[in-house]
Amino acid sequence: MESSKIQQFLEGKTIFITGATGFLAKILVEKILRVQPNVKKLYLLVRASDTKSAQKRFHEEVMQTELFKVLTEKIGAKNLNSLVEEKVFPVAGDISFEDFGIQNSEIKDEMFKEIDIIINSAATTRFDERYDIAMNINVLGAVNILKFAKRCEKVKIIVHVSTAYVCGEGEGVIPEKSFILGETLNKNSYLDIDVERKVIEDKLKELEAQNLTSKEVTIAMKDLGIQRATLHGWPNTYSFTKAMGEMLLGHLKENLQLAIIRPTIITSTYKEPFPGWIEGVKTVDSFIVAYGKGILNFCFGDPNTKIDAIPGDMVVNSILAAVIAHGNQYYSSQESIYHICSSGKNTLKSCDIRLFLFHYFTKNPWINKDGKIIKVGMPRLFSSMDSYQKYISTYYWPLSKVLELVNLLSCRRFDKTYKNLKRKIDMAIRLAELYKPYLLFHGSFDDANTERLRMAMKECNMDDVLSFDPRCIKWEDYFMNTHLPGAVKRIF
């Protein structure tokens, strides 16, 4: 039975959600429609050229997903369509632009008058995204949210979805602490976001003058992002730009109520609307896919590293809990940071996932397109980058060079074998480089604020319908019976 309390809090509210076609936003929209169909309106920002295109994207990429099967079964397809038509309004726009580039002034004016709650889940989550793109979405997008909110007459709360890894390569217990504008992680530099924008502008002009291909420009802009992140102490462009976004939100929010949700590694749904729903390859799933398909049987990482994972539906529940707590003034503070995490309450280690993978794919081997069963061995785990690179250079690079030569001499007779080996090597190097900060992560996240939020939900009898306590997760059962089957079904 759904809680009447959450129905009461969300009834008649108008909610604006950005990043509407993303993984978390889909779960969020489904949850709201399922537990409180009497919201007044859901405005969903969809990247599209016009309203018709936005509606098309929403119906194809959101409503037609398997995620909505529970709600369809509950109220019927016809009633669901009527509900969506009455309550859900996809808005064509782009978070990178002021007022999101919304062209329809009537819709915009309605939004300014009606919006009670803003949830910003728009982001580019690629670790090595082009610096200009990451800046536009993760940094300037956050500023555009604030500018828009300040023109809304009724807005009560902004919930901004960030990442716990804005901390970089932290050690020890990492507090739920906000950033000061200009703060860096290496403490040896000052971060001037206007300077960063100028660096991007100058680099783009320089590249344009060189008449490079779009691919070459993309590579250069990705490299620039990593360089600037490293300069200021962050391991990648994603965590760097998300940190800048948080800085600007905190600095510019004035009297607006702001809650920042910092999830760790988001995995498939634990319970709602059903276990195991996932979409797209998330952080931990890159190796799962490569291992299950027989592409990689070795990996890099400290076996004792805490892999801080949290199911997607728990993240969504924490977002709604923050909306209710701050929107109804349970908390007097105007800004709160929430680590939505598991490392402090329910530890999961690299060595655990390694065992889960081996047992699962031994019992449930992947069958390739040729109908062959992919046999897996226990993944070999290297705890230092030196030993990992030495293994590749000793066992794979020489074989690759020999295969390359044999392939050329035999008129590409071994082309497929050579390409598969090269793909394996490239993937092994790329995954290790991208995920090194998380595979050797020696911190754990404080969640004192989050625990208070959980207690607030318990006090008003919403801890069942808005559950986000990681202590209930049995990791072996979750991976073996929920996450891995879900990933195989929906990602492979």
UniProtKB/TrEMBL annotation:
Q: What is its EC number?
A: 1.2.1.84
One of the entry's Gene Ontology molecular-function terms is: alcohol-forming very long-chain fatty acyl-CoA reductase activity
List the keywords (alphabetical). Lipid biosynthesis, Lipid metabolism, NADP, Oxidoreductase
Q: Where is the signal peptide?
A: none
Which chemical reaction does it catalyze?
a long-chain fatty acyl-CoA + 2 NADPH + 2 H(+) = a long-chain primary fatty alcohol + 2 NADP(+) + CoA
CDD domains per record: FAR-N_SDR_e (cd05236), FAR_C (cd09071)
Q: Which GO terms describe its biological process?
A: long-chain fatty-acyl-CoA metabolic process; suberin biosynthetic process
A Pfam family the protein falls into: Sterile
List, for all copies, the residue spans of the domain called Thioester reductase (TE).
17-319
Extract the SUPFAM superfamilies matched here.
Answer: NAD(P)-binding Rossmann-fold domains
Give the Fatty acyl-CoA reductase C-terminal domain ranges. Answer: 399-489
What family does the Swiss-Prot or TrEMBL record give for this protein?
Answer: Belongs to the fatty acyl-CoA reductase family.
Q: What the protein does?
A: Catalyzes the reduction of fatty acyl-CoA to fatty alcohols.
Among PANTHER family, the record links this protein to: FATTY ACYL-COA REDUCTASE, MALE STERILITY PROTEIN 2-RELATED
Return the protein name. Fatty acyl-CoA reductase
Say which species the protein is native to. Answer: Nicotiana tabacum (Common tobacco)
Give the organism's phylogenetic lineage. Eukaryota, Viridiplantae, Streptophyta, Embryophyta, Tracheophyta
